[in-house]
Write a structure and sequence with these properties.
By secondary structure, this protein is mainly α. The chain is 78% helix and 1% strand. It has two domains: 53 residues, no CATH class; 223 residues, MetI-like fold (Orthogonal Bundle), CATH 1.10.3720.10. The chain is built from 15 helices and two strands.
């Protein structure tokens, strides 16, 4: 009878009573925490993107008349030599990201074990990531200037200034010099992410591997690498997509001169110097599609690579179990 009374009381509860109840307050809190970030995301991300997508169909400047031209802006992007030739410079940054990730993974593996002074080294390596990108650009602009820091250090080791190249003018090496700034800035971030992932691996796996006689390299290949594959994939995707949208080093250090202009630098010049907002918007949409396609290809590639590795491990385990079963059967037959 008491249970029936409680059920009837719940059914008779009004909307105001429910809103003031604990259940109602929980719902309001959850909705509030969901709505606020969604509204901010819509206002500052999706709405500007929709506006930019609309701009890509107009021949327009920031101020003045707009003329609808359809897909002509996209056609103009493909017809401009400077737009897609700038993507070639992204290959330098992609190569730098591979070197950066390899070094970060190597040092993260070393520092994950007990190393004297490891904490101080981590701090020094992570510090460049905390510096503003514009400030990093000005630092390296002074660093690479003829006869200044880098040239002076090389002269200490016996190099003659006349034999040294112009690090920011020589087109055979200036893009490599700019890539060095990105490697220096983002190397510590990737290293810290790798260290966090490696530290989360169960220490009992290392102890079991050491009892089986596995050395450090074997522990890395068969314990660390499979355990942190998610972080590896994430870092590779972020590094490759970041290489396609490199902007700060070439813009601040060289202003895109001497063949150092990346896709973003050219897009910035078209939008703000030439005032061709429609063409620049079309370039941004095309770059988004390129980054989206590159991300999908990377995910498919790593999915295939790690799946193949897992299949090999399963096959090896199955073969080992079969051998043990045969050996046990022979012993039982005796």
């Amino acid at each position: 009878m008491a249970a029936m009374t409680q059920v009837s009381m719940k059914k008779k509860r009004t909307l105001g009573e429910w809103a003031r109840s604990r259940d109602g307050q929980k719902v309001f809190v959850m909705v509030a925490f969901m709505i606020i970030p969604l509204v901010l995301l819509f206002v500052f991300t999706y709405l500007p993107f929709a506006e930019m997508f609309g701009f890509s169909f107009y021949n327009m400047k920031y101020i003045g008349e707009r003329k609808f031209v359809g897909l002509k802006n996209y056609i103009r992007v493909f017809q401009r030599d400077d737009c897609f030739s700038a993507l070639k410079n992204s290959l330098y940054y992609m190569g730098g990201s591979v070197v950066q990730l390899a070094l970060a993974l190597y040092l993260a593996t070393v520092l994950s074990f007990k190393v004297k002074g490891g904490s101080i080294f981590k701090g020094f390596m992570f510090f460049p990531y905390l510096i503003n990108g514009i400030a990093v650009g000005f630092i390296f602009k002074f660093f690479y200037t003829r006869g200044f820091v880098f040239d002076t250090v090389l002269q200490w080791f016996g190099f003659e200034l006349e034999n040294l190249p112009y690090w920011l003018k020589d087109q055979s090496i200036n893009n490599i010099s700019l890539v060095g700034t990105s490697v220096w800035r983002y190397f510590g971030q990737n290293m810290v992410l790798f260290i966090g992932a490696i530290m989360s691996v169960d220490s009992e796996l290392y102890e079991a591997a050491m009892l089986d006689g596995a050395n450090r390299f074997q522990q890395f290949m068969y314990i660390i690498l499979p355990s942190i594959k998610t972080i590896i994939v994430l870092n590779v995707i972020l590094s490759i997509t970041g290489s396609l949208s490199a902007f700060e080093p070439p813009y601040v250090i060289t202003s895109g001169a001497n063949g150092t202009g990346t896709y973003f630098v050219i897009m910035h010049e078209i939008a703000h110097t030439q005032q061709k907002v429609g063409v620049a918007s079309a370039m941004a949409i095309i770059l988004l599609m390129i980054i989206f396609a590159a991300t999908i290809l990377q995910k498919l590639f790593f999915k295939y690579v790690f799946r193949s590795a897992e299949d090999e491990d399963l096959n090896a385990t199955a073969r080992r179990d079969k051998k043990l079963a045969k050996l046990a059967a022979r012993k039982a037959g005796r």
